[in-house]
Structure formats: C-alpha cells, structure tokens
Specification:
Strand order of the largest sheet: 4-6-5-7-8
Radius of gyration: 15 Å
Strand content: 25-35%
Order of helices and strands: EEEHEEEHEE
Number of domains: 2
Number of helices: 2
Helix content: 10-25%
Largest sheet: 5 strands, mixed, barrel
Structural class: alpha+beta
Number of strands: 8
Length: 126
C-alpha cells in the first residue's frame, strides 16, 4: 500500500498500491467529480513517474469565490481564469462534472483559505 487515504475533498477515498515491480492498482472514488480529482492528483503523477516525466508545478494564484471549508482537508475546486487571478466555478459537487467541464484548472483550497487569497493551482496538462 502506497496511499490508503488522502485529506482532500472530493477524492476520498482513493488508493494506490504496488502489486509487483511493474504492476499498480489505483482505486478511484465512485462519484464522477471525485474520480476526476483522484485521477488528476494520484493517477497522473503515477503515470508521469513511471514514464520518467516531471510533474508540473503548482502555481500560487489569487482565487476568488466561495467554497465550503472542510476542517483538516484541502478542497479541490474548478476555477476559471480571470484578470485578477482565478474564480471558483460552481457545479463541482462530487456527483457532477459541470464545473470541471467549464473550468480551466483546479485550485487546492486549504482549510484556512479566504476569498482572494493565493492558492496552489494545477495547470492543465501539467
């Protein structure tokens, strides 16, 4: 077992296990948006590492909007580019993909984040 839990929403539970030197198991959550987030944050880095590619950087950017905080967890939310940074897009509950389809990137919103404060943003394709 490499990863058996993560402190993020959505995306919990997710799993990463190595069966042998070249075989891996990735367990994704059942809800569509949660599975997309888990694939982006767990499966993507695994594939990059196995293929010898470097991971993209997380770029701190001002993020504007409202998000329900989850104590002790990071929330991964879709954002759209704006002149003053990024804006959180609605429609990103775990069972819905509307926000992700309309978004430009994902922002990692920590429990202490406040509207307009910088947050790490995962750039597309990175």
């Amino acid at each position: 077992m490499v990863v058996d839990t993560v402190a993020c929403r959505p995306g919990h539970p997710m799993l990463l296990a190595e069966l042998s030197s070249a075989r891996w198991v990735v367990g994704l959550p059942g809800n569509p948006y949660a599975a997309l987030v888990a694939a982006r944050t767990l499966l993507g880095p695994l594939v990059a590492g196995l293929s010898g590619r470097r991971l993209g950087s997380l770029v701190p950017m001002p993020v504007h909007g409202q998000v329900k905080p989850t104590p002790g967890h990071t929330r991964l939310v879709p954002v759209a580019w704006a002149e003053d940074g990024c804006r959180i897009i609605g429609g990103h509950r775990t069972a819905f993909l509307r926000g992700a389809a309309r978004g430009d990137a994902l922002a990692a919103i920590g429990p202490e984040w406040a509207d307009g404060a910088p947050a790490p943003v995962m750039l597309p394709g990175a």
